[in-house]
Amino acid sequence: MLRYVGRFGCPDLFITFTCNALWPEIEDALSFIPRQHASDRPDIVDRFFQMKLKLLMDDIEKYDFFGPILGGIVLAVLSSLFSHRPSITLLLFTYYT
């Protein structure tokens, strides 16, 4: 990530979004499967992580959560290795009017 900072300058926002296995949506989906935990079903965890990530990106891009942005997200590093939880790191370079 340091090479992007060297190329584009310092990002305005550095956001890390990590999945929580105790999200109510995940627990509700697992309640239909007896004796299953979030660690047993990474497909369910990843599905809800992707849904929440889309909501976050919509808040940033469409609904101006951090104010009006003329530029965009230059870098999004997704690290869902299923070691424990999927996560993503966003370097957001904004250009305010």
Rg calculated over all Cα atoms: 16 Å
Helix content: 25-40%
Major β-sheet annotation = 3 strands, antiparallel
Q: Residue-averaged pLDDT, rounded?
A: 78
Identify the strand order in the major beta sheet.
1-3-2
Figure out the total of helices.
3
Could you give the order of the helices and strands?
HEHHEE
Write down how many β-strands occur, each being a DSSP E stretch of 2 or more residues: 3
Quaternary structure state of the chains depicted? single chain
Task: Report the β-strand fraction as a percent range.
Answer: 15-25%
Q: Label the overall shape.
A: elongated
What is the element layout, followed by pairings?
Layout: H1 2-8, E1 13-18, H2 24-30, H3 42-61, E2 72-79, E3 87-93
Sum up the structure in keywords.
97 residues, alpha+beta, 3 helices, 22% strand, elongated
Tell me what the structure shows.
With 97 residues, the chain is an alpha+beta fold. The chain contains three helices and three strands; from the N terminus they run H-E-H-H-E-E. The protein has helices spanning 2-8, 24-30, 42-61; strands at residues 13-18, 72-79, 87-93. A three-stranded antiparallel β-sheet has the order 1-3-2, covered by helices on one side. It is elongated and about 50 Å long. The mean pLDDT is 78.
